[in-house]
Structures are given as structure tokens and as C-alpha cells.
């Protein structure tokens, strides 16, 4: 696979690690951007020789200035795909539009249930018996874009937020590299809110940046 | 098991059939109430010798009159537990209060996602990859009470509303009899929104940590 992927992080970077460890995706991760200077994810990137940059929102005079710096960085690095892996900022509409259909996010719930930043605690508070993980394309609404992959995770009787989140993250670490590979290989067909996965061979290498013809064989 | 259970229906009654076919629950179903005179569910009840009554809302001068007739019927039949199995009416607050913690509903989605009467179509329109079924206790908000059992169901690439709904119903037909048995055996411990399942002895207030979701350990 030939692609230039940026991963945006804010924390420990276990999803970044899963991407770096994926034999297909890992070599294509060429840039890691963290919103926090102390993110362990930065160490993970540097340990693999991947360029690691801190863009701390508080260090910019305005939101626009920060977003402009991000856009410039992605452009300089010729980034084709952006993966949000625990990135605790909302991307600017400019970046979302510039990378339409080429940005993934991973979320620790079965969206549309439990969007937002406290989804695991919210799910436990609601008393669900089934939680899960979602990888979706990013649009201009938070935790809203078309779903690429979802997988259910059982809630066990004595779960707390930590134990349930850990079980969900195991699934995230499988789903996010897979979705990233499918996206970068041009195998995602987006029809409205529905995302279909095309067979690996014999498909056009072009990306689904506009509505695709429906002649592909489904996975 | 010794209990007097009423099942409220509006349609074909496949969930009623699953309850009637359950060796523990079936003999305890002593009353079926339909909001529609042409519901196939009525035939299913009569075929088992279960009292089948039509309470058609349109035939009452007011909502209160209809709800009063329902309350009187449940009282006359000494009903202890009420199961909503495709019942397309919202129960009156009076009945919900009178049977607090003793009414179950089955819903073809992983609540809180996709409440309401078009949940399967709504889930497909949203493009989810995981759907499911929920059995919950009924409170005074629609599709809202504490969750007893949930199970995920995969959405397949070429699903339409009919094929997905059929797959969900297979799960409903397992979950609803199981939840009804747990409720009627007094094994549900309701703590706020969390429902725990006690051991069959009815003594232990909690289950030990288990590698399986509790609805599987109870299966």
C-alpha cells in the first residue's frame, strides 16, 4: 500500500500503536500530531522514526491560527489521509472539507448511541448490556459521519469505566487499522450515510471523493 | 414457576408465540390483550386456550376510558406481570405505576439508539453496522426503562428493513422469554438504571465476575 497518513492524538496513543504495528498501515504513517506536549503517543511515534509534532491550541492566538498551522503542516507533508486516534479537538471545517471522505475517527461506543467525550461512563450510567466501538468517516458534525466499521462489546456485571473501556479498546485496536487500510486502498464506497467495502482486487485506485458508480462486488 | 402473566399485542404475535412456547413461561401466560381485532396474535392465544381480549382504543370515548378498561381487566385476572410484545400503544401512567418494575417491553434496537416505532428503518438509514434487540423494564418514558437484556445483531451489506428485522426478531424470541422468566422468578435486582440478575436461589444480590455477559451465563 502506498499512502501518506497522518495520525492526530492527544493521549497515550494505544490506537496509534495499533496503526504503527499494522504491517500494511504502519509504514504509511508519516506524521503524528499531538494537541498536548506530554502525550505518550509522541514517544511511540519517535520510537518508530515517525515525524512527531506538537500543535498546542493554547499556544496560538486564535482557533483560526491553530487550524491554519494544522492545515499547513498537513499540506507540507503531502498528507492524503488523516486518522483521529484519541484526538480531543474538533477539526476545523476547512480541514474536514479539504479531506472530505479521507478522515477517520474511532469512538468507544456504538454510535449514534453515546457520542461525546464521556461515552463509556454514559453507557454504564444508562445501564446498557452491549457497548462497542465505531470507526467512522468524519464530517462537520461531531461523532456523526458515515460508519465504516462497528463491533459490539459485552458489558459485564461488575464493569467500571476502566474495565469496560479496556475491553472496547481491544476492539478499537483491531477496527482502526482495518478501516484505515480499507480507506487508503480505496475500497470504501460511500453512498449517503452507507459505507460499503469493495473487494480488494480489480477496483479503481481512485478514492471515493465523489459518489461512486455501483458496479463493484461487495465484500 | 408460579405467576400470572398478561401479554399485550397489536400484530402477528411472534414474540407472544415465543413466550407461549417457553416451557417455563408459557403455562403462566393467562391473558392476551390486543389493541387490534385482526391481530394474528389473538389466534395464537386461542390456539393455546389462553384468554384473548380485544381492547380497541378507537372504541372508547376517551383515552382514560380505554386505560380504565385495561386496568380493570388486569385486576380481574389478578395479573402480576405484563409483557409488551409488539404492543403499539403507550401504557397509561396509572398502569405503569401500578405495575412498577413488573412490565417488560421488547424493542428492535440497542436502546438508547433508535427508539420509536421505525427503529429498524432508522438504523439502516443511519448506516449502522451493528443493530440489536433490547428487553427493558417499562417506565413512564417511551423506550427508556432499565435494560434487562440486550444482544447485538450484525447488519449485512444488502440488508433491507425486512431482512434485518427478521434477524433481530430471532434474537427477540430468545431474549423476551428469558427476561420474562427472570422477572417472574424474582431474580432481577434493579439499582437505578442498572439491572442485575441474581442466582436462581434468589439469595445472592450480585453475580460474581464472569467472562461472559450475564445474559449468556443465564441462558
Summarize the structure.
By secondary structure, chain A is α/β, with parallel strands linked by helices. The first copy, chain A, contains 6 helices and 9 strands, in the order βαβαβαβαβαββαββ. The first copy, chain A, has one domain (5-197): Formyl transferase, N-terminal domain (Rossmann fold, 3-Layer(aba) Sandwich), CATH 3.40.50.170.
Describe the model.
Two copies of one chain form a homodimer. Helices cover 31% and strands 22% of the residues of chain A. By secondary structure, chain A is α/β, with parallel strands linked by helices. Chain A has one domain: Rossmann fold (3-Layer(aba) Sandwich), CATH 3.40.50. A seven-stranded mixed β-sheet of chain A has the order 3-2-1-4-5-6-7. The first copy, chain A, has a two-stranded antiparallel sheet with strand order 8-9. In chain A, strand 2, helix 2 (40-47) and strand 3 form a beta-alpha-beta unit. The longest helix of chain A has 24 residues, at 161-184. Mean pLDDT of chain A is 92; it is low at 203-219. The A-B interface holds A 110-114, 125-130, 132, 146-147, 149-152, 154-158, 192-197, 218-219 and B 110-114, 125-130, 132, 146-147, 149-152, 157-158, 192-197, 206-207, 209-216.
